[in-house]
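Predict the structure of Nodulation protein S (NodS).
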Amino acid sequence: MGVGLDHLQGLYADTSDPWGFAESAYEQSKFAATRTALSKSGYRSAFELGCGNGELAAHLSDICARYTGMDAIATALRAARERVPDARFVQGFYPGPLPEGDFDLLILSEVLYFLDPAGLTQLAQDISTRWGDAEILCVTWLGPTGNPLQGKEALRIFTAALPDHAFTCVTKTEDYRIDRGLTEVSQ
Ligand SMILES: C[S@@+](CC[C@H](N)C(=O)[O-])C[C@H]1O[C@@H](n2cnc3c(N)ncnc32)[C@H](O)[C@@H]1O
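Done. Here is the predicted structure for Nodulation protein S (NodS).
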């Protein structure tokens, strides 16, 4: 079982920023590193699963002609819409329907280890089917997640289910890593 909706709702019960994204120097520097890890200077359309309150979207949306974020939690999405008014934010709990879009960039930042192995494989399959040549950026916390899956294992399961993408670790610190997946077309 992945992390359930009730647990996510609990995290956001008293705040729209449970991880302190807006104030944390660590998080802000990680967002900057995430932008630096991208292979291109601009994208047609980006999709971020588990976008939270839109802090990462705020760091990336100016280089994406369109930006779509999805999160399970309405409180997070309200904050995201305020933070990045030009982006599109939709509510949904994955596994479930993903938004429509012609995405050439998929952002999976600190979200894979909220899913379970079946969800990770499903996500890889959905991506292969719909956005098979999109660039994929995975940001992964390397400390204890407190979730059933740890970051490295979630990343391993997800990337192994996407054989057409070659994943490279482009940034690694003691705390997190950023992996970028490209296909021959997206390179
Ligand atoms: C740690 S935050 C990461 C936020 C943002 N991606 C970032 O890196 O700053 C994880 C977010 O994913 C959302 N999330 C977790 N599991 C989810 C699921 N199964 N479906 C949709 N959203 C989910 C949570 O509500 C939370 O806002």
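The mean pLDDT is 97.
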